[in-house]
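Notebook entry, structure prediction.
Reason for the run: the old model in the group folder had no record of what sequence produced it. Starting over properly, with the input documented here first.
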Amino acid sequence: MDKENTIPALEDLPRFVHEALQQHDLCSEFRIRPKHQQANYLRWINSAQKSEIKVKRLNQMLHELKQGDTYLNLPLR
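New structure, fully documented this time:
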């Protein structure tokens, strides 16, 4: 199995991501995204070195999950 695309259970996600998904009631929307999108979101958020950038990226992911029509600022087909 490709370790880069292995997604942990929701409760094993970084705490701030898991809490944000729960708070915004977006756990299902996160889980229905393809595994590579889930992995890329997590990698993208966690690759930020500054906490304010992590928060900005987290908020973008939450917005995209809520809207349901974009992924990393690209329209979904």
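Summary: The mean pLDDT is 90.
The old model has been moved to the deprecated folder.
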